[in-house]
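Lecture notes, unit on protein representations.

Consider one protein chain, 200 amino acids long.
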Amino acid sequence: MSVTRSTARPRLEGERVRDVLKVALQLLGEVGYDKLTLDEVATRARTSKATLYRRWSSKADLVADAMSGEHGHEPYPDTGNLHDDLHAFVAQRKSVTDADVRLMCGVSTAMSTDPELGRALRQRFVEPKRAALRRILEAGRARGEVGDDVDLDLLTRLIPAMMTFWSVVEGTPPPADLGPRLIDEVLLPAVRPKESPAGR
């Protein structure tokens, strides 16, 4: 038996999805992950809990989408040289605010105790950024700017780890120049191909 239009639950699409994700982030910053409920998200977003569950299977699923913003899509620059690509990549990241720090601290704690949230955030929030950074480094390697012996998996963790460490451990937004300084003072020297003995 088919469901009539009058009794079918509405689906969230387009701008309404973005509205719900914005509400979820706001509540996440206000009450933290543990106290966040889909009932409260539905109330503030002026929709129903049943409608939310038609799009997100759980609270962790909703929060992962809200944190990822672009649902895992991470454009990467292609300027033709590694230095400019890396700086353009970092420049795409928005400035971190005190509210962002509080949110990251709360979510980091929740990830350690909620395996579902940890998996969802790694898949949709962390890994897309690492994958985009790795593609930049691989392009640099193809141009001869990155040594063949450089561990790309290790280096793709470097900048995100330092930014997160600063927010969670220091409890303050990272300095505006932290990303560029990490590139110039740490990452680029680390990836530079080693000179052969004959080239010295």
